[in-house]
Amino acid sequence: MCGIVAYIGQQEAYPILIEGLKRLEYRGYDSAGVALLNENNELNVYKAKGKVSDLEAFASSKDVSGHIGIAHTRWATHGEPNQVNAHPHVSQSGNIALIHNGIIENYLSIRKELEKRGFTFKSSTDTEVLTNLIEDVQQSEHVDLFEAVRIALNHVVGAYAIVVLEKGHPDQLIAARKGSPMVIGIGDGEYFIASDATPIVGRTQKVVYLEDEQVVKIKLGEELHIKTIQDVEAMPYVQELKMNLDSIEKAGFDHFMMKEIYEQPTIVRDTMRGRLNPEANTVRLGGIQQYEKQLLYADNIVFVACGTSWHACLVGSYLIENLAKIPVKVEYASEFRYRNPVITPHDVVIAVSQSGETADTLAAIQLAKEKGAVVLGICNVIGSSISRATDAGIYTHAGPEIGVASTKAFTSQVTVMVMLALRLAELKGSMKDEERAAFIQELDRIPEKMQWTLDHSGHVKDIAEKYKDVRNMLYLGRLQNYPVALEGALKLKEISYIHAEGYPAAEMKHGPIALIDKDMPVVFIATNHSTYEKVISNIQEVKARNGKIIAIISQKDVLARKMADYVIEIPETECLYSPLLALAYHIAVMRGCNVDQPRNLAKSVTVE
């Protein structure tokens, strides 16, 4: 949620900040703003409700000069989305400007104390409270801004990533983080600061990821100066940014979502590369190798995740229990720590997140560690908070996912789940060698089958045209196709705003069947060989009630093809996800929805 960009150097800051904000639009936001310090030591702050383009229009006739600036896209938490509540926020004296991702939980008590000390507030935000708290500390303790920020952050409860700009100091920015990501790009006599790496790509390859409770002074002509909020010096760890500009461009597609749908065959291959060896029929997951024994003998493997990642974990639970015969639990990270879960040192907890910054999942990791469990991670972003907080993990190698509605990230997570199940099965000896070899060979063929499916999915657009105006849809599947049905329904909800629900196909009779009539399209995933006849029975039940049937079937299928109103063919394998994505995409486009930036949603949910 929210986006941070800041710049200090010899270039004009404003164009860099605006470009960075545009690259962060995928994160979801409802207002935007920028603060610039010009050569006359004038602090110019411009804010607008709406898109970055609205901010550009508002600032088009204003003074946007200066070589130092901070910028922000806000997703409203405290106070409605409007110009007053938009960031940056300025302190009462007008000397300090601040941008903030996260939530200050004790802001009300701090605000009351500051009001007693003579401070007044223009906005409803927790961020303005933090801005004035820093100014109050600076004035009362007679310290510089770096120390004021450090001291002030000892008095706040919550999550934050902040960048602070001060009048009279055109060569300095102060930044800090806790529970919300922050990356600093180191250029030639210039620095770039952002909430993720996308605004920095193409400008420098040298980056530093701030750790939790670290404060950094970024001053031209000097090395980065980092302290913890407890006043302990820390050395910056400079890394190479492993991202290229092409990965965050649309590459000729109308939307990032469609680009990322078509990237699936490549990212599945990338996720398997160096791990799956079809010649030797082996799987090796180097990132978790030292914890294989704990996984093998765990009382439980416990997945914690949110949203799409939770659906991927459900697929993983089916695969690991079926192939490796190890008990698996799947928990919503947002519920995990509040229900006092039974976790012991004999369990292994696996946290799954695309961004690696999901606040609820990070909180679940902390709880699991407190209970003594080994904690592993599966995420897509190198250097992310979850990758640093876990004992070890597996990167998915999906590349940057710009569309808010997850596509290729889910596919890559499922790929990791399959490989993990196969590796554990190999170690445990729970599969016959020939059975495991056949599974590995089939997994190796999945990218080409995905490509075939994409190449032969043109008619999905016709199905979308037929059903673009419906108000409800059901998605039904069995076994590991049930979580795929959940994810297909989620995609339709997210980007087209049509109400959709996913169910295990047999559960339709326990309530949802009451909804079936001539106006209710039902998507059946009818590819699972072991339950095919059961799914056929479910299709007949819908057909008997005049429901409209869209069936995802294998190429050689005859029976379901005759019964369905529309069919989407896939190669002879378990369900491929692409047709569900394509259906949701085309419906959303036809309805005039913003496919890449659905309303009210954010890509990286960094608040609870």
Based on Cα principal axes, name the global outline. globular
Report the span from N to C terminus: 11 Å
Strand content: 15-25%
Query: Would you count the extended β strands for me?
Result: 27
Helix content: 25-40%
Radius of gyration, whole Å: 26 Å
Q: Output the number of helix runs.
A: 19
Mean pLDDT: 89
What structural keywords apply?
globular; 8-stranded antiparallel sheet; 608 residues; 7-stranded antiparallel sheet; 19 helices; alpha/beta; single chain; 23% strand
Outline of this structure?
With about 600 residues, the protein is of the alpha/beta class.
Describe the structure.
The protein is of the alpha/beta class and about 600 residues long. The protein contains 19 helices and 27 strands. The strands form 5 sheets. The chain has an 8-stranded antiparallel beta sheet with strand order 3-2-4-1-10-9-11-15, covered by helices on one side. The protein has a 7-stranded antiparallel beta sheet with strand order 5-6-7-8-12-13-14.
Walk me through the topology.
Blueprint: E1 3-8, H1 13-23, E2 31-37, E3 43-49, H2 52-59, E4 68-74, E5 89-90, E6 96-104, H3 107-116, H4 126-141, H5 145-153, E7 158-166, E8 172-178, E9 183-186, E10 191-194, E11 206-209, E12 214-219, E13 225-228, E14 233-234, E15 238-240, H6 256-262, H7 264-272, E16 276-277, E17 282-283, H8 292-296, E18 301-305, H9 307-324, E19 328-332, H10 333-336, E20 348-353, H11 359-370, E21 374-379, H12 385-389, E22 392-395, H13 408-428, H14 433-455, H15 460-467, E23 472-477, H16 481-496, E24 499-504, E25 521-526, H17 532-543, E26 548-554, H18 559-563, E27 566-570, H19 578-590
Parallel strand pairs: 18-19, 18-20, 20-21, 21-22, 23-24, 23-25, 25-26, 26-27
Antiparallel strand pairs: 1-4, 1-10, 2-3, 2-4, 5-6, 6-7, 7-8, 8-12, 9-10, 9-11, 11-15, 12-13, 13-14, 16-17
Helix pairs in contact: 3-4, 4-5, 7-13, 7-14, 9-13, 9-16, 13-14, 15-19, 16-19
